[in-house]
Amino acid sequence: MRAPPPSGRQHRIAFGRSHAVVTEVGATLRELELGGRTVVDGFAETAMCTGYRGVPLLPWPNRIEDGRYAFDGREHQLPIDRPAEHNAIHGLGTWERWQLVASTPSAVRLGLDLAPRPGYPFVLGLVIEYLLDEAGLAVTIRATNAGADPLPFGAGHHPYFMPRASLGAARLRVPATTYLPPGARGLPGAETAVADTAFDLRRGRTIDDLQLDHCFGALERGADGRARIELDDLVLWMDAGFRWVQLYSGDKLPEGERRRSLAIEPMTCPPNAFRSGRDLLVLRPGEQVELRWGMELLGEAAEEEARDGKERKTAGR
């Protein structure tokens, strides 16, 4: 009998020449192609996820110093899952089996009831939806406080995106006016203006040998409230709920994965927000928050994908 994949059931969705694979374990975006272009640098179906590739970061993104924080007058201690740094990292949903809520050929919705536990003794309901259409991929995250007490919450996502050729030759544009330099333990330093630094990416530049493991803030947004980060012909957009974006060029990844792709991580709060309180969301009993981000293609590839999707819809009538 064939062994099940390490990441559990594989949920496949498609629209036109685009397709995605979302896994049961972690509700992880394992594969993504838009218009036939490989977008996500994921992992094999036969492998376990490494480097948090494509994982939603819930109920907090990035690090919590020493895994310890205070909330509503109580001290909490989370497990230390990054021992070398002595930090808790990237939330509690990565290795959970998310349940299928609903699916169509082009969309899948998964849910997780996060049970109270030491370090996070709160009742949190999570739902994440992946949708493909003529615009590209849209991801919606909903979090609901299903308990009787307020709870702290932050959200993020950790996909790695493929450049057209090499990462060094890729053009990157980030509409951020500030950044947080990482410290020795991956914890953020003082907020710094990007002006006159190597991290001023507002007009776009080739990455070359720039090493990134930085959180960017004060994002400039369009009239629709979305901030947009460009990597070659790819655009990652984030709604107003995502106030920060972490960029990681993979310099610490194992040989063969190092600087192969760029992690672009939309985040509602910066690293260590459970301790600093900065942009930390507090959900009251029964309160829900909804957050959205997505991916699009620029130029001719996007137009061709939209035409192909419309033709398939017409043929199916």
The ordered string of helix (H) and strand (E) elements is: EEEEEEEEEEEEEEEEEEEEEEEEEHEEH
How many strands, what sense, and barrel or not for the largest sheet? 9 strands, antiparallel
Number of strands: 27
Secondary structure class reads mainly beta
* Percentage of residues assigned to helices: under 10%
Q: Shape from CA axes?
A: globular
End-to-end C-alpha gap: 40 Å
Rg calc = 19 Å
Query: What number of domains?
Result: 1
Q: Taking all residues together, what is the mean pLDDT?
A: 94
| Strand line-up across the major sheet | 10-11-12-13-27-23-22-17-20
Share of residues in strands? 35-45%
Word description of this protein:
By secondary structure, this protein is mainly β. The chain has a single domain (10-315), classed as Beta-galactosidase, Chain A, domain 5. It is built from two helices and 27 strands. The strands form seven sheets. A nine-stranded antiparallel beta sheet has the order 10-11-12-13-27-23-22-17-20. A six-stranded antiparallel beta sheet has the order 16-25-24-21-18-19, with no helix packed on it. The chain has a four-stranded antiparallel beta sheet with strand order 1-2-3-4. Strand 1 and strand 2 (18-23) form a beta hairpin. The longest helix has 16 residues, at 300-315.
Short recap of the structure:
This protein has helices at 273-276, 300-315; strands at residues 10-15, 18-23, 29-34, 37-38, 55-57, 63-65, 68-71, 74-77, 87-89, 99-104, 107-114, 124-133, 136-145, 151-153, 156-158, 160-161, 171-173, 176-180, 192-193, 205-206, 213-219, 227-231, 234-238, 244-248, 262-267, 281-283, 288-297.
